[in-house]
Write a structure and sequence with these properties.
Elements (H helix, E strand, L loop, with lengths): L11 E5 L6 H15 L8 E3 L6 H12 L5 H15 L4 E6 L1 H17 L6 E6 L5 H11 L12 E2 L5 H6 L7 H9 L25
Parallel strand pairs: 1-2, 1-3, 3-4, 4-5
Helix pairs in contact: 2-4, 3-4, 4-5
C-alpha cells in the first residue's frame, strides 16, 4: 500500500518512488528527479510514497503490475488519480523505477473503471520498469500527456540502465543497450554517482 496520504492532498507537482529506500530517501530522490524536468523548481512537492518491503517483495510487486495483476498500491493510486481528475485538480507526476510500472497499471485501472479522460494528469518516467510502447498506448487512451523528459518525450532512460532496458523491455530492439545494461547491472546497487539508475539520466548535451 502507499504511505498514509489523503486523496484531497494530491495536486500540483508529485513524485512516485521506485523500490527500496525509506521515506526520507524517497523525498531526496524526488527532489533530484523533479529538478531534471521542472524549471523553475517549486519549493515543495507531493511525495506519493510507496513504502519498501525489501528487494524480493518490491520486485514481485513490480512484476505484478507489469503483467496486469494489479497490486493494492496500484489500486490505491488509481483511486487517487480518479479523485484528482474528478476534483478538477491538476497533477504533474514523475515516476521513478518501479513507480513507472505502478503508474502505468494505475492509470489503466482508473480508465477502465471510469472511461473518462484524465486530461488533468501529466506524467513522466525516469528509469522506469514500464515499457514505453505499452505505457504510451495506455496514456493515449486515458488522455494523459507528458510534460518533460528528454526532448519532451516524457522519458529519461539511461541507455545502459537495466531497469528500463531489460526489465522494461525497452532495449529488446537495441542489442547494445540490452547487453550493455546487463554487463553493468551490478552498478545498480552501487553509489548513486556510479549507478546508471538512481539519479535522473542527463544526456551528454544536457549536462551543465
Amino acid at each position: 500500500m502507499l504511505g498514509e496520504i489523503g486523496t484531497e492532498e494530491v495536486q500540483g507537482l508529485a513524485f512516485l518512488n521506485g523500490i527500496l529506500g525509506d521515506q526520507e530517501r524517497h523525498a531526496y530522490l524526488g527532489a533530484k528527479h523533479l529538478e531534471a524536468d521542472v524549471n523553475p523548481m517549486p519549493s515543495a512537492f507531493e511525495l506519493i510514497n510507496s513504502p519498501s518491503h525489501g528487494l524480493l517483495v518490491d520486485s514481485w510487486m513490480v512484476f505484478r503490475d507489469k503483467i496486469g495483476w494489479t497490486t493494492p498500491a496500484a489500486k490505491q493510486l488509481a483511486r487517487i488519480l480518479i479523485d484528482v481528475q474528478e476534483g478538477g485538480r491538476s497533477l504533474d507526476l514523475v515516476a521513478h523505477s518501479g513507480g513507472g510500472a505502478m503508474f502505468s497499471e494505475a492509470i489503466r485501472v482508473a480508465y477502465n473503471a471510469t472511461h473518462e479522460q484524465f486530461s488533468n494528469i501529466h506524467a513522466d518516467f525516469h528509469g522506469g520498469a514500464n515499457n514505453i510502447g505499452v505505457t504510451n498506448n495506455i496514456m493515449r487512451r486515458a488522455g494523459v500527456t507528458h510534460f518533460g523528459g528528454i526532448d519532451g518525450s516524457g522519458y529519461r532512460n539511461n541507455p545502459f540502465d537495466a531497469v528500463p532496458q531489460v526489465i522494461g523491455m525497452n532495449g529488446l530492439f537495441h542489442p547494445t543497450h540490452f547487453v550493455g545494461s546487463l554487463v553493468i547491472s551490478p552498478r545498480l546497487f552501487q553509489d548513486e554517482n556510479r549507478s546508471p539508475h538512481t539519479l535522473p539520466y542527463m544526456p551528454p548535451d544536457q549536462h551543465p
